[in-house]
Specification:
Order of helices and strands: HEEEEEHHEHEHHEHEHEHHHEHHEHHH
CATH superfamily: Metal-dependent hydrolases
CATH topology: TIM Barrel
Radius of gyration: 20 Å
Largest sheet: 4 strands, parallel
Number of domains: 1
Number of helices: 16
Distance between the termini: 18 Å
Number of strands: 12
Length: 407
């Protein structure tokens, strides 16, 4: 075992099952500083993003609307990693509210500082991680009626990201610039820019593509083909992550509030899973049924912080649809799904079932660290993968991501 794999000096000794190799973690997060949206934002768009004090609470306003994808965009204090495990394992036997379960802590240096984060990865025995936005995942929905501002804000965000973290400085931390299809011409230009400076990963939200001029578009609409072609040709991984997908609008039909509040979900919102399972199920179905992978056969997609509970039902529906009308598909849709899409399950998912349905070589570890809905450290996830068996567990915890990134 290498020094990297062994160096975990301040991690609590009782971590359950362990392995003798370093992990590859496809879903960790940074916490953005206050100027992440404005440091590089063109003066023309400075009025779009404002920080404000609302009733003693510091928050972000986008076109005058409060950003709600994260409860506290200053992140100080912030929920401690793993402190919501009892909630997400559905073991809240004391019927506590989320605010009474989560444990708060001051923001830690490694949440914002790359050098400190690498040290933390060494302690955790993580060889490579993909770092994913936090508040950045709520921006697109708030700017869906203003594509010009949306693309300007995303480009500014991506420039900040390169400043503070880099897209891939040494193979240890890969960050993904945010890409939106809301303006495909601007998206092409942004992809060209970030490819030039070395990105190997881009981030998209799960959901349809908003259009201020009419009905939303499928991400697989041919008008987006030049964007997908650039990503496929460059071998860039498209990481689709949970965020504000705009699906709360469907709740109004059932008498619920349409305001996106992150984890503060009503029982019906939780059951309908409008923030997680529904958007990614629909997006993957659209990408497959609208022929995206037929037209771009080298495209690679990873779904992150979206779990795996939706995967069996999508397999079933694709199988039935293909059996009814095979002539309407370019190829077997299940084969296409398995070939092009890697899945990072939640720890509460049935991971062996995912393996049996989708394949051991298409599973990723996505720890969500340091978000409170993850676990206290990435190696705590190992116990949830043990039932895969030694060989398949190594694929999920290391080899699959290593193969995807080519390192």
């Amino acid at each position: 075992m290498t020094t990297l794999e062994a160096a975990r000096s301040d991690i609590e000794p009782d971590v359950g099952p362990d392995v003798d190799y370093a992990l590859y973690d496809a879903d960790e997060h940074y916490y953005e500083p206050r100027d992440c949206l404005t440091r590089h934002l063109d003066k023309k768009f400075r009025s779009v993003v404002k920080w404000a004090d609302i009733d003693g609470r510091i928050t972000v306003l986008i076109h005058g609307k409060q950003l709600t994808v994260v409860p506290n965009p200053t992140y100080d204090p912030v929920g401690a990693p793993g402190s919501l495990e009892v909630y997400f394992r559905a073991r809240n036997q004391d019927a506590k509210e989320l605010r009474d379960i989560v444990r708060m802590q001051p923001i830690q240096p490694e949440y914002r500082d790359r050098e400190q984060r690498v040290k933390r990865l060494d302690e955790f025995g993580v060889e490579q991680t993909w770092l994913i936005p936090s508040l950045g995942l709520g921006i697109e929905e708030m700017l869906q009626e203003d594509p010009e501002s949306a693309m300007a804000v995303f480009s500014a965000y991506n420039r900040w990201l390169d400043d503070d973290w880099g897209y891939d400085r040494d193979g240890r931390i890969l960050t993904g610039p945010m890409i939106s299809l809301i303006d495909p011409v601007a998206a092409e230009a942004e992809i060209d820019r970030v490819l030039e400076i070395g990105t190997r990963l881009v981030i998209m939200r799960a959901g349809p593509v908003a259009s201020p001029h009419g009905r939303p578009l499928s991400p697989a609409d041919p008008s987006h083909d030049r964007v997908w072609a650039k990503l496929a040709e460059a071998g860039v991984i498209v990481a689709i992550h949970a965020g504000d997908a705009g699906y709360t609008k469907y709740l109004a039909d059932w008498g619920e509030s349409t305001k996106y509040m992150g984890m503060k979900a009503s029982p019906l919102t939780e059951v309908l899973s409008v923030g997680v399972e529904r958007p990614i199920f629909d997006m993957m179905a659209a990408m497959i049924c609208h022929g995206l992978f037929d037209r771009h056969p080298t495209l690679k997609v990873a779904t992150l912080e979206l779990g795996a509970a939706w995967v069996p039902e999508l397999h079933r529906r694709l199988r039935v649809a293909y059996g009814k009308a095979p002539q309407k598909f370019g190829r077997d849709p299940i084969e296409s799904f398995r070939e092009h899409v890697w899945i990072a399950p939640f720890y509460e998912d049935n991971i062996t079932n995912l393996r049996d349905i989708h394949g051991a070589d298409r599973i990723l570890l996505g720890s969500d660290w340091p978000h409170p809905e993850g676990l206290s450290e990435p190696r705590k996830w190992i116990g949830d993968f043990v039932d895969l068996g030694e060989d398949d567990m190594r694929k999920a915890l290391r080899d699959n991501q290593r193969s995807l990134t080519g390192s």
